[in-house]
Amino acid sequence: MIEKQKIRPDALKKLLEIANDPYGCLADLRKKKRIIGSTLADVPEELIHAAGLHPFLILGTNDPIRHSTAMLPDNSCSLARSNLELVVGYQGAFFDGFVLSQVCDTTQHLCDIWKRKFPDHYFENFLAPRQVARPSARDWYAQECRRLRAALENYTGRKISDEDLRQSFGLYNENRSLLRRLYDIKRDVPALMTNREFFDAVKATFFMDKQEHSRLIQEVLHWADQEKHHVTEQDGYFKAIMVGIVVEPPHLYDMLDEVKGGIVGDNLCTASRYIYHDVEVEGDPAEALADRHLRKPYFTPINEDVRRIYTDLVSLYRERKAEAIFYVHIKYCESQDYDLPDIKAQMRAEGIPFLELETEYQTTHLAQMKTRLQAFCESVIRKGLS
Amino acid sequence: MNKEAGETREKPSAKELSKQLTAAYLEDARTAHDHGKYVAYTTAVSPVELFVAHDIIPIYPENHAVACLTKQMGTELSLAMEKRGYTSHLCAYARSDMGYRITGKSAMGGIPDPDFLLACNAQCFTLTKWFEVLARQYQVPLFVFDTPQWIRDPGARKEIVKYCVRQLKEMIASLEELTGKKYDYDRLAEVMAYSRDASLLYRRFLDMAAYKPSPISIFDALIHMAITVYLRGTPQCVDYYQTLCDEVQAKADNGIGVVEDERFRLYWENLPVWFKFRDHFNLLKSYGANILTSLYVHSWSYEFDTSKDPLETLAENYVSVFSNVTLEERAEMALDLFQRYALNGSLMFVNRSCKAVSFAVYTLKDILSEKTGYPALIFESDMGDPRFYSETQIRTRIEAFLETLQRREAEAV
Ligand code: SF4
Ligand code: SF4
To answer: What ipTM was estimated for this complex?
Structure first.
């Protein structure tokens, strides 16, 4: 039986509300600041923030695709498709401009289509290195940060001082550290909050004012610190690792919650890649951002040691004493398509229970996926619905 | 040596030369280790001059794949790798290559295994991922030459070139480590001079499409591009393109066109449908239409400036290939071809194998149609796997397109 619903603090409810419908919050913010959308994983949001703008992470939409179909080939990944859908659908209402990064064939060319679609919006490419194996990558990332800084100054007509940057770094570092603390508690006390709740609370930070988000997370932490001592029912949970780029649709978290799979580690762009590692506040700001970028967990479209696609997973699995790995595979993402057979082979060799979940943002066959996931949990890790 | 009927020349024809050079090159590669040389896999668009100057024989899995796809082996090879858990959504070159590695089946007796891999993402990212699979399989180093998109910002371009030059230096250090041999920059300068000359001749050959009627079609370009892809940087390559230019120039001087009564001069977007290109050529010919060019075949018409630091001119040329420029600039490059070759229509292929070239084709079509006013046909299919090629549907659409061209021509009279 699923544990009875605990009383959630208002702060958590508010975070979940925003994660699931961020546009009201963005409309409010837009009254005060210009809103700049950026794509996952590589854009240093701190720079946009320090320029006095509001950075917002474009995370696509699960709504049916109407506008972007005619612009993209049939086999484009649903992340690209739904990102374009989102901005085309909401164009005037929420965005003043974009800073887009390029990590794969899809994103590189999507940038061009995007730019043409919004000729009146501010637009900047952020050309992060697609190899991180050699020293040149660090300097290149730092160089791109300098270029972006100058471009943003040009757009706003106002200098970004090193002090502005340090303040933004501090704000972002604080936010990341609060989220890491919450993750630690969630990890230790899986019955305290669901996967969906935790990852939605993280998701809210992609849209909200950072200070406000940190304030709400602090309240949640306060509640969690108290509540964790009262949670007695810890049985039946197993420890899971979540792997991928994004977990969409978010019902995948619910499915794992239903089988009592507590996520204790991940390498998602929407979680660990975002919340792990801080920016050094002292020293050259561009280099500090580069150092943080290079410390983030491995990301499949970026080239590094070619074995990291599985060695990182094995280490994370062992270090967190996990019992299964769930791999969210976005259909038509070649980066993942090329990696998966070798990852699976390695997982078999290591005896690690591994389940691939192929999804699209608009996935409709969730019932089928749920059955697979339950069958996997029952047979492979012998944990089923209680 | 084979000679075409009626030929009396002593010098071999370009076609004969191509066969000889290809055979010798493959033989060299297959016996590389016997001669203390190394074999490196690389991408068609990559600074291969660095290999040539260091006695490393470059092998292009893409070229090998083209040979297999042209011989209609695409489905069989793909099925072999699909059985190993890969998906049929991947690039047909990669599918064919991975299928070859499982089955050993090849249209040209196979290719030697690699000692080193180089992927240059100016062409695509797919190759990086495909080569990562090979790097794990053969346990050899993979070097990714990361070429940021060639955005139109002079300041950014300067920095991009610096980043690329720095990476080329990193690669040279890796090559020295691999071979235990110091890099010879004088030799690189020599190789660059050959590459420069061959690229200019290759461009001259492509530009002969400007003649009316055109003495070449894109199908000639597709056949004759092979040598510049794998023998750039050698004197044989220069010699080959000189011979080819002389032959084609003679045709042009005599007013010989590949399509008699040439009426429609078309642009092709994308790579060809390899297993169909003969059929396409014949179908078009029957309507007096010729496809003259594409940006794809122009990928190898580099302009190396040998008065510069070789690493700099290498970086500048490879980073600015059509697949790595912005869509805006790519459209301008295509429009330049429309102008120089007096084109009057386009066939735009959305190739499910190649997102790098195809992703923005719908938008590119809008731009070209808007700017030229000429009709364009757009269709989705696959360059190498007949399972994704719908014969009747595509044929009917091409015929309907050609009829539109005919109607427009009649109305214009
Ligand atoms: S990395 Fe994969 S999921 Fe992300 S945009 Fe590229 S193809 Fe899509
Ligand atoms: S066909 Fe396209 S995806 Fe395939 S290797 Fe060539 S450029 Fe890359």
So the answer is: 0.94
